[in-house]
Amino acid sequence: MTNKGEINLNIGIDKIGFYTPHTFIDMVKLAEARGVDPAKYTIGIGQEKMAVSPVTQDAVTLAANAALRILDEEDLEKIDLVVFGTESGIDSSKAAAVYVHDLLGIQSRARSIEIKQACYGATAGIQLAKGHIALHPESRVLVLGSDISRYGLNTPGEVTQGAGAVAMVISADPRILSLGDQSAYLTNDVMDFWRPTYSDTAYVDGKFSNEQYISFFLNTWKQFKSQTDLSIKDFEAMCFHLPYTKMGMKAMREIFVEGTSEDEERLTRHYKNSTLYNKTVGNIYTGSLYLSLISLLEQDETLKPGDRIGLFSYGSGAVGEFFTGILQPEYKEALAEAEHAKLFAEREEVSIEEYEEIFSEVLPVDGSNLQLTIENDPAMICVAGIEEHKRIYVNKNR
């Protein structure tokens, strides 16, 4: 018999990896180019670098490259559900998951779907995956969160752009994080962030969005406590959706009054480690919470098996969810830390002028054919062009 709020069936994250484009800009240099005090970017919102996605990468290729780094032949045979969370989808009909399914060579007896709800999509995928694994314990589910955040050059939201993807294998008896049965979630129709189908950039009411984020966190946190016997003292760390790295702290500090000074110190210390990757990549929408989790697990040396981690997911518009996970005995061995360190080390800084050129190079929207040069993109999977209204993808391994 399990206690209230504890895990009945051991389902969770068995593998987790991410990918980000090979080019980035320095936020101090962006601030200087925009005539802004650099501290507004580096301290005010907590960003140091921002990934810049070339035209040879889109949400599909970013996700496929993230998954390519963690999947083995056994995964390709056992995965029978692919769930792709994104708000940067490339087709209004065909799911991005179908492209990734083919690019990775996953066995054909699988469901492949796309989920959209702003930055919440990957979390929805995880919850769907849990139900699937509960019914089919031998199966594995690939959950993807992939996005390119675009607000436009010289716009207020420019500093919170970014690009990247996170891939997760959800399974029974996971090696990294066992997910709890209890979740608290909330939906409310608010216009804090949206992107109409006719626009390739998003619209955002920044101040209102920050307020809604905090409100949703406090609401779901209160719900979660009412569902379980857990309180702030029971959490070793908390990870947040991070549109920018100061946002999660704005929410978390609201509950510090519920604990001791030791609770505040512990959660703050872990939080800083959870932001290290995000502050050098930027906002990746659906993957941001899980990039924060990767950063925490790979950069924090004081975590240990059995620690409980809180996870807050927020997708503007809006849907929020608070849930938990327990670190497993072999979680460190199951991480792709060396791969991620290599990925960061091999990135190249581009000038602000080069960034503006890259940002302005987009795929045609009038149906024109296009052939792209992919030799300069070190990614294994790339967009090679457009033919007869169809994007052409290349896996260089094939």
TrEMBL record:
Residues 10-173 form the Hydroxymethylglutaryl-coenzyme A synthase N-terminal domain. Residues 188-262, 268-359 form the Hydroxymethylglutaryl-coenzyme A synthase C-terminal domain. The active site is at residues 87, 119, 241. Keywords: Transferase. GO terms for biological process: acetyl-CoA metabolic process. The keyword RNA-binding does not apply. InterPro entries: HMG_CoA_synt_C_dom, HMG_CoA_synth_N, HMG_CoA_synthase_prok, Thiolase-like. Signal peptide: none annotated. The keyword Transferase applies. It comes from the Bacteria. GO terms for molecular function: hydroxymethylglutaryl-CoA synthase activity. (3S)-3-hydroxy-3-methylglutaryl-CoA binds at residues 37, 151, 250, 283. Belongs to the thiolase-like superfamily. HMG-CoA synthase family. This is Hydroxymethylglutaryl-CoA synthase. It comes from Desemzia incerta.
